[in-house]
Amino acid sequence: MLIAVISDTHMPKGSRVLPDACVERLRRADLILHAGDLTGAAFLAELSALGPPVATVYGNMDEPALQATLPRERVVEAADARIGMIHIPGPRAARAERLLARFPGCGAILYGHTHTPEVERVEDTWILNPGSPTERRKAPERTMLELAVEAGRIAPTLVSLGT
After folding, report:
1. Is 97 helix (H, G, I), strand (E, B) or coil?
2. Of residues 65, 101, 102, 97, the one with CA closest to residue 86
3. Beta strand pairing status for 81-86 and 73-78?
4. Per residue, what are the HEC states of 95-107?
5. Beta strand pairing status for 81-86 and 108-110?
6. Phi and psi (nearest 5°) for 9?
7. Fewer CB within 10 A of the terminal residue: the chain, N end or C end?
């Protein structure tokens, strides 16, 4: 199973669009996960129209109507793997320990908010932030993640989408 992961798209916003390479990867995925800050319900509809099922959590910048329809955190099960999702992971200090305690038994935990990608293995769990495909802020480039999931095993790949 191939899972495409994005976060912090902040759309719609002016003429902002997802990079073509991101859209191609989203379309060919079996599942799309978004770690919050979609911003508007119109973008969630656009994302859902790409084809694969979409699972998301709300972020701090999402419009109130969208927040009302989405969970703050969730656990997604895919190909015998459990993936925890939350937008705001809290302070950097002890972040991994907090996330591991919040999502026990997950093979990966996804978060957003920082716009800075992270791919780190802590104990038996991946701590993952896809960065942002649209707004890199302090990150060196725009990014997303792909997760290859098979028989409960998760293999993450950070994908560069350029500057």
Report:
1. helix
2. 102
3. antiparallel
4. HHHHHHHHCCCCC
5. parallel
6. -80, -30
7. C
Specify whether the CB–CB gap between 78 and 53 falls below 8 A.
no
73-105: pLDDT as tens digits = 999 999 999 999 999 999 999 999 999 999 999
**Structure tokens, 40:** 């508007």
Residues in the chain: 163
Domain range holding 117?
Answer: 2-160
Residue 72 has pLDDT above 80, yes or no: yes
Q: What is the distance between the alpha carbons of residues 87 and 154, in angstroms, rounded to a whole number?
A: 20
- At 103-113, the pLDDT tens digits run 999 999 999 99
Domain harbouring 94, CATH code: 3.60.21.10
| Dihedral (CA of 36, 39, 56, 161) sign | negative
Provide the token pair at 83: 């993936």
Q: Are 100 and 128 in contact (CB under 8 A)?
A: no
3-state secondary structure of 119: strand
Neighbours of 48 (CB within 10 A): 13
Overall domain count for the chain: 1
φ, ψ for residue 138 (rounded to 5)? -85, -5
Tell me: the pLDDT tens digits for 128-151? 999 999 998 989 999 999 999 999
